Amino acid sequence: DSQNYLRRELFRRFFALAPAGQDHFKQSTTRLYFIADKVLEFPLEMFRDPKKMVEDLSALGLRHVGYGIPTELFAPFVSGAVEMVRTMTTDAKAEDGFRWSLSRVSRILVRTINEGSTIVMKAINTNNARQLEKAVSCAPRGKRSMWLLDITVGSQSISPLYWSIESGSLESAKAMIGDLLIIRADRDNYYYGADDLFTRHPDIIERLCADAEILLTGLFDGLIWRSRLTQNGQRRVNFYIKHLVQDADGKFSKCLDWLVEESDPKIMCHPAVVLFSDLVWGGLANRFFLLGKCWFLFTLCLFIVSQSILQHLNEGDQNQLTRTSIMAIRCFIYVGSLGREVQKQLSEAVADFRARRYIRLSGGICFPKYLGRWNNAVSFLLMLCVMLMLTQEPIIWCADNYDPNADSGRTSGFINGRNYDAVSEVYAPVSMVAMLLYWTLIVDLTVFSTRVSAFVLVCGRTVSELGLFIMAMFFLIVAFSSAISSLKHHNDDFSGIAKGIMSLTELTLSMYPTTHFEVLAETTMVFVAVAVFTILGNIFLLNLLIAQLSCAYQSVHADLVGYARLNRGKIINQTMVGVSNTRWSRWLASLRLNERLEYNEGDVGVAGGLQILEPANANPTNVDQIQRFAGSTSPAMQWPAENPVDDESDKLERLEKVFLRATKKMTGGTRRDGQSGGSSFTGQSGSFTSEGGSGSGGSEEADGEVP
Fold first, then answer.
1. Where is the composition biased (Low complexity) (predicted)?
2. How far is CA 58 from each of CA 45, 120, 427, rounded to the nearest angstrom?
3. Does residue 232 share a domain with residue 172?
């Protein structure tokens, strides 16, 4: 009860001392109670660990800069808290200690807010791009980018850009990113904020993917410079992708990983993302990915030879060489392929268990997160199949009947052994499933072609519709087979539910013998039931499947290439983990990202990118993307005022002003007309109303218009 009293009394006394403070507390009561608890904790922590408390208060004060809290409210807040404590205790020393400690907290917060309240932060609170441009125009050209990226008070700092994203001021954040990625130049220097942006915020891509995906396009657009001049039908284009390829330590950047996790196909088709992902894929990843698949392809070839070729070679009369080859290849499959796969699956599972990465299903069922990727799940099933094949291997079960000295064919004891037929009934179907799983895993190689990969992805995204169709058909088959079995008839094809299911399945697949239709027509009820089944299954459901596939294809058609690039991005991220630092450093040095790029002929600009030539009609532009200024070249000078470019908001604002002026003129004219012609209007009203018997009402209305 005393705790709740403290919570309520604190804000009651504060609002009584400073009624304006109510306008700044919009949170719920539970949030206010949380703030009250922190207010009581701060004085205690100030005595326990003052150094740490000062750092925490500096960080809190910088957050209050973003909240736009007036510093005048801190004094009444402290007074209200002290008065509240006075009502709870008679110990003067405790009251003095609380007052002293809370006053120190208040002074630290006020000092932090005063030092951190820059014009940029004030402009962010308005969430107006024009206000932000006016605020940052006061910055020296050499420090303009840091005005937008860093505010430091003591040992604590805050990023205005990140604060605008956290507070939802996306208009300000968009304007800040645009201002940072504009290339400005005087006679001596080029100023481009990309390096400052990625140095201050290496995780800017991750942050935008999580909180402001709409700003990603503007960020990537700012990394591209296109010349307005063309030569021989080609246009120079500079892509400043250094920070997308490498991080601050020179290692492979996580930007592609963050973009893949976002799973936005449109972003993956942005020219900047396309260039740097294709660069990494063509320079390193595809080579190592193919080398990693060589072992799998070799294993697949051996599996095909042992399971599908050699065992049918001279069947029934196999020589010693053939039998030995089959045994040797299968031993290699069980040791080399199965052993490698078991090691891989165990390492992935242990890593997920240690990191507590699970995928939870309904009913409390959970399994390692790595099995959420389809290729890992298929590999796991393949491992189980090969394990089952090993337990049912005929060579092991029939080894007692094997004659190593036989020159031709198996011995009769081996081929007719007690265990051979039994194990073959299990071994052969499992071998078939394993073969299909092997071929399924080879789908990863479609990543080398974007078009083929897009087709495979379409198949994967529409297979769910096929699954629904199969489920509906299975329901109809079981329903009609059980219904037909309840009839009295003499048709052997439907004499029982099992035979009925087989016959209806053959009808669905157009495999039902045509000679059986005459027998089917002999029983009218059976014929009617089969006809209804055909209408529902082969006509209605099949056409519905076509319609569903068409709709599903249309929903993914616009983003086919984007989904293919997402798939390639996943493979790039998985492959780059195995690339050695030496090879990565050698390839990175070949890009020469630290060399300054040329804009137009003889105009050498900033470094950090690659220059390519694109067709002149691909992205036509007649505006120079570099803002050039004359005058002083001192970094301490501000940039000269730019020529304002009217946007839609400016046009709307001017239109509103025109309407306001016109309205004022019309209002003024109406008033003057009312003063000069009021008597005539009144007379007319009286003449009209005298006929209707209500002349006074019109006179009063006319008089009411005269000011």
1. 678-691
2. 14, 19, 71
3. yes
In terms of DSSP bridges, do strands 183-185 and 626-628 run parallel, antiparallel, or are they unpaired?
parallel
Domain-embedded: residue 345: yes
Q: 649 - beta bridge partners?
A: none
What torsion do the CA atoms of 193, 194, 195, 201 make, to the nearest 10 degrees?
100
- 444 and 518: one domain? no
Q: Quick: pLDDT tens for 89-108.
A: 788 888 888 888 888 888 88
* Sequence letter at residue 630: A
Torsion of CA 42, 45, 46, 50, to 10 degrees: -130
Question: What is d(CA 225, CA 627) in angstroms, rounded to the nearest whole number?
Answer: 12
Q: Answer yes or no: do 353 and 419 share one domain.
A: yes
Q: How many domains does the chain have?
A: 5
Are β-strands 604-607 and 596-598 bridged in parallel, bridged antiparallel, or unpaired? antiparallel
Distance from C-alpha of 338 to C-alpha of 385, rounded to nearest angstrom: 10
CA 684 to chain centre: 73
Query: Residue 421 pLDDT > 70, yes or no?
Result: no
Residue pair 242/275 in contact (Cβ under 8 Å)? The answer is no
Residue 64 in domain: yes
SS3 361: coil
Q: Are 132 and 123 in contact (CB under 8 A)?
A: yes
Phi then psi for residue 627, to 5 deg, are -90, 115
382 to 291, 361, 377, 469: CA distances (angstroms):
21, 23, 9, 27
H or E element, residue 649 = helix 648-676
The pLDDT, as a whole number, for residue 360 is 81
CA–CA separation, 101 vs 109, rounded Å? Answer: 13
CA distance 614 to 227: 10
CB neighbours of 84 closer than 8 A, spacing ≥ 6? 6, 9, 10, 13
pLDDT-wise least confident of 77-86, 178-187, 403-412, 623-632? 403-412
- Residue 637 placed within a domain: no
Query: Taking a C-beta distance cutoff of 8 angstroms, is the pair 541, 469 a contact?
Result: yes
pLDDT tens-place string over residues 492-512: 888 889 999 999 999 998 888
494 burial level (CB within 10 Å; 0-12, 13-18, 19+): buried
Place of tokens 């005269």: 706
The conformation of residue 243, written as its DSSP 8-state character, comes to H
Co-location of 126 and 218 in the same domain:
yes
Together in a domain, 438 and 462: no
Placement of tokens 């018997």 in the chain: 693
What is the model's pTM?
0.73
Pairwise CA distance, residues 662 & 656, whole Å: 10
Phi/psi at 563 (5° precision) = -65, -35
pLDDT above 70 coverage of the chain, percent:
88
Same domain for 170 and 211?
yes
Q: Which residues contact 590 (CB under 8 A, 6 or more apart)?
A: 283
Q: Can you list the alpha helix ranges (DSSP code H) found in 392-449?
A: 394-397, 412-415, 420-441
Structural domain for 695, as ranges:
654-704
The answer to whether 165 and 207 are in contact (CB under 8 A) is yes
Predicted pLDDT at 399 = 67
Beta bridge partners of 627: 184
- Residues 458 and 517 grouped into a single domain: yes
53, 112 Cβ separation under 8 angstroms: no
**Backbone conformation region of residue 676, classed left if phi is above 0, alpha if psi is from -120 to 50, else beta:** alpha
Residues 481 and 373 in one domain: no
Q: Is residue 53 part of a domain?
A: yes
State the Cα–Cα distance between residues 247 and 243, nearest whole angstrom: 6
